[in-house]
Design a protein that fits this description.
The protein contains 5 helices and 2 strands, in the order H-H-E-H-H-H-E. It is mostly helical.
């Protein structure tokens, strides 16, 4: 204590040796953020229902998967250059990487409609779907 140091009474007392090799108490603080807990619960629910996780390390995506497969029109303003980061290298994705049957169905829905939808009543272009974006 400061009093023992000031009076130098510590010189007359016996202290146990200090162990520099001992480990401290384990840290017990900290909690998960509530939104992270909810996300983990939802993830578990969807996995139990049979859903699978998609790899999320694919930062370059084709316009087909990012827009067309989600049925966003090829003329939609969100696909403009000021709202989407288009790549110059590699500029396009090989269209053979798209499942052919699915590609045909998406193109048909966009241009002619289906499933009680009229579609967008405009031609669907594979060149637009091949463009790579971030």
């Amino acid at each position: 204590t400061p009093e023992m140091i000031a009076s130098e009474s510590w010189k007359e007392l016996e202290f146990k040796p200090y162990n520099f090799q001992s480990l401290g108490r384990p840290i017990t603080g900290g909690h998960l953020h509530p939104l992270l807990k909810v996300r983990t619960q939802f993830r578990a629910i969807f996995l139990e229902m049979g859903f699978t996780e998609m790899p999320t390390n694919n930062f370059v995506e084709s316009s087909f998967w990012n827009f067309d497969a989600l049925f966003q029109p090829q003329q939609h303003p969100a696909r403009d250059a000021h709202d989407t980061f288009f790549l110059t290298h590699p500029r396009t994705t090989d269209p053979k990487s798209f499942p052919p049957e699915y590609l045909e169905r998406v193109a048909k829905i966009h241009s002619k409609g289906g499933h009680r939808s009229l579609g967008y009543q405009c031609p669907w272009q594979i060149e637009e779907a091949e463009k790579n974006i971030l």
